[in-house]
């Protein structure tokens, strides 16, 4: 019997509810006229004398516990109802703080929309690449010194699995599965194992473009890039400086004439007025052959740029580290941007 009363005590202590009717039912169950406690008290006279003392103690313990529990439950409920009553539901809600897009994303979307207007579509691919798509198909055979231009993170050697060093790998994938005419952009993250310093990042974003059709010329490339710089920077004067990329021939670096109106212009352009913004060139015939496109029939141009750098120029951001620090004072400045 005493064991059973102890069980009741456990039960009472553990009981929880937020409902008025349930609290009342609980009270009646234990403390009501026909409740458990009265029942137990009625049995008191039948308890052998030597057990009466302990029996009385546990019954009292149960009674106190039950009373205490009913009071506690009622009090909690009352408190909650009080706060509910003082709450003014007609007041306007807390304003929900709007986030803002990251500048890298804004610039990426702007670049995409500029090229979409002249017929470019999008193509994306994996960040972990095999040797063929990242290097060999792009006219960078094994042991070619030009591979050193892009310090590579190897995931596995033999066979080679790498973190792609540029999004040109996506172009190869797209060319393997589609036939010209083709005009598309490949945006994405790329990885380079460059000397670690506070100013270098091992991951950055690129956007590359490719156009392949009959009779695509260097003049087409120049015209497209001039349209692009006009749309993005409001400046259409560009110059193409001879350069080298294994996958294009001829190759060039693109400079945009930024101007020398302000002191910042002098600083940014090192007094020349010109800013380098991307690499480009005519797709090397070897690349076309590698994806079974006849270079006698088709030609094409390609270009590629780093989005971090473009955003740096567009917003005059002083330090590339700001992109990754997640400092809200920096990020919220881009709120007004719609993209
Ligand atoms: N893939 C080159 C790079 O990562 C950029 C580029 C793309 C240059 C296309 C020319 C043509 O540096």
TrEMBL record:
Its recorded reaction(s) are: tRNA(Phe) + L-phenylalanine + ATP = L-phenylalanyl-tRNA(Phe) + AMP + diphosphate + H(+)
Name the PROSITE patterns for this protein: AA_TRNA_LIGASE_II (PS50862)
Entry superkingdom? Bacteria
Record domain Aminoacyl-transfer RNA synthetases class-II family profile: where:
116-333
**Main subcellular localisation:** cytoplasm
User: One GO term of the cellular component aspect?
Assistant: cytoplasm
Cross-referenced Pfam families: Phe_tRNA-synt_N (PF02912), tRNA-synt_2d (PF01409)
On cofactor binding, the record's note says: Binds 2 magnesium ions per tetramer.
Annotated compartments: Cytoplasm
BP-aspect Gene Ontology terms = phenylalanyl-tRNA aminoacylation
Which residues are noted in the entry as Mg(2+)-binding?
Answer: 249
Q: What is its EC number?
A: 6.1.1.20
Signal peptide (from-to): none
Alphabetical list of InterPro entries matching this protein = aa-tRNA-synth_II, aa-tRNA-synth_II/BPL/LPL, Phe-tRNA-synth_IIc_asu, Phe-tRNA_ligase_II_N, Phe_tRNA_ligase_alpha1_bac, Phenylalanyl-tRNA_Synthase, tRNA-bd_arm
Provide the alphabetized UniProt keywords.
Aminoacyl-tRNA synthetase, ATP-binding, Cytoplasm, Ligase, Magnesium, Metal-binding, Nucleotide-binding, Protein biosynthesis
Is Magnesium included in the keywords of this UniProt record?
yes
Which terms does the record give in the GO molecular function aspect? ATP binding; magnesium ion binding; phenylalanine-tRNA ligase activity; tRNA binding
List, separated by semicolons, the cofactors it needs: Mg(2+)
What assembly does the database describe for this protein? Tetramer of two alpha and two beta subunits.
**Recorded family membership:** Belongs to the class-II aminoacyl-tRNA synthetase family. Phe-tRNA synthetase alpha subunit type 1 subfamily.
Q: What is this protein called?
A: Phenylalanine--tRNA ligase alpha subunit
**Biological source species:** Weeksella virosa (strain ATCC 43766 / DSM 16922 / JCM 21250 / CCUG 30538 / CDC 9751 / IAM 14551 / NBRC 16016 / NCTC 11634 / CL345/78)
């Amino acid at each position: 019997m005493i064991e059973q009363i102890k069980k009741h005590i456990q039960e009472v202590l553990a009981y929880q509810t937020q409902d008025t009717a349930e609290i009342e039912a609980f009270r009646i169950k234990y403390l009501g006229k026909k409740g458990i406690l009265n029942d137990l008290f009625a049995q008191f006279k039948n308890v052998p004398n030597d057990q009466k003392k302990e029996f009385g103690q546990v019954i009292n313990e149960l009674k106190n516990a039950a009373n205490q529990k009913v009071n506690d439950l009622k009090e909690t409920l009352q408190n909650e109802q009080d706060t509910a009553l003082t709450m003014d539901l007609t007041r306007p809600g807390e304003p929900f703080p709007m986030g803002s897009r990251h500048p890298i994303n804004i610039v990426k979307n702007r670049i995409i929309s500029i090229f979409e207007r002249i017929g470019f579509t999008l193509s994306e691919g994996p960040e972990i690449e095999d040797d063929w798509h990242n290097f060999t198909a792009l006219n960078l055979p094994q042991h070619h010194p030009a591979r050193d231009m892009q310090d590579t993170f190897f995931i596995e050697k033999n066979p080679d699995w790498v973190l792609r060093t540029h999004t040109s790998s996506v172009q190869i994938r797209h060319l393997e599965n589609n036939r010209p005419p083709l005009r598309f952009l490949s945006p994405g993250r790329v990885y380079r194992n460059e000397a670690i310093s506070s100013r270098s990042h091992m991951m950055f974003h690129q956007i590359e473009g490719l156009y392949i059709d009959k009779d695509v010329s260097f003049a087409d490339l120049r015209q497209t890039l001039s349209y692009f710089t006009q749309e993005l920077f409001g400046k259409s004067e560009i110059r193409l400086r001879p350069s080298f990329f294994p996958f294009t021939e001829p190759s060039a670096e693109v400079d945009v004439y930024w101007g020398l109106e302000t002191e910042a212009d002098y600083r940014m352009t090192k007094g020349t007025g010109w800013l380098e913004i991307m690499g480009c060139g005519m797709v090397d015939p070897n690349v076309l052959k590698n994806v079974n496109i006849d270079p006698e029939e088709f030609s094409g141009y390609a270009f590629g740029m780093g989005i971090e750098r473009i955003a740096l120029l567009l917003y005059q951001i002083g330090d590339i580290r700001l992109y990754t620090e997640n400092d809200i004072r920096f990020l919220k400045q881009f709120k007004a941007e719609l993209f």
